[in-house]
Amino acid sequence: MRVKTDARRQAIVSAAIEVFRELGYERASMAAISARVGGSKATLYSYFKSKEELFAEAMLDAVDSDFQPLVDLLVTSEEDLPVLLRRLGLGYVRLMRTPHALAITRTAVAEGANAKLGALLYERGPRQGLDEIAAYMERLIDQKRIRPVDPRIAALHLKGLLDAGNQEPLLFGAAPELDIDECVDAAVDTFLRAYATA
To answer: What sign for the dihedral angle of Cα 45, 50, 54, 57?
Structure first.
């Protein structure tokens, strides 16, 4: 029975992705999604408490498979820190340039008045990523590979350096200020100058 439940949940998420892409968040309704998936609104609400929760699940599901390899990088025992940070940076910048990631960010900003949706998208997306990077920074501190600092601040600084010249222009529909390699190389170099122990 569990497999059937998981399959139904995934069918709902897939239908929701289609409806949200076609109609946008505001115009999409639970009724439209239930009609697309074939079932009742009550069934949808048994899986997802609100349209906000379903939207967050649908949007984040679209990028989840791209995010997991980044998390996997953080548990490797790569000896060369600059090489590992560069691989992490390339993966992150490429992910943040995907249409799905940009759509999620644009929607979160556009729905800013709907604090519940914005907060949910942040908690399920950027906050989870930040938590993973902060845990990695803590391991680097324990290994004395970066100086002892607040690991969360180090994670925020690395993310900010990687976003510089990329995220904002893309959200406006403009070309990034830097190409991917230039961006990542500058970010890693700056981060290591600030935090590396040797």
So the answer is: negative
Cα–Cα dist 17/29, whole Å:
12
What are residue 146's phi and psi, to 5 degrees?
-130, 160
Q: Which CATH code of 3.40.50.10330, 1.10.10.60, 3.10.450.50, 3.40.720.10 fits the domain covering 1-48?
A: 1.10.10.60
CATH of domain 51-195: 1.10.357.10
pLDDT tens, position by position, 131-180: 989 999 999 999 999 999 999 999 999 999 999 999 899 989 899 999 99
- pTM over the 0.90 mark: no
**CA dihedral sign of residues 167, 122, 50, 35:** positive
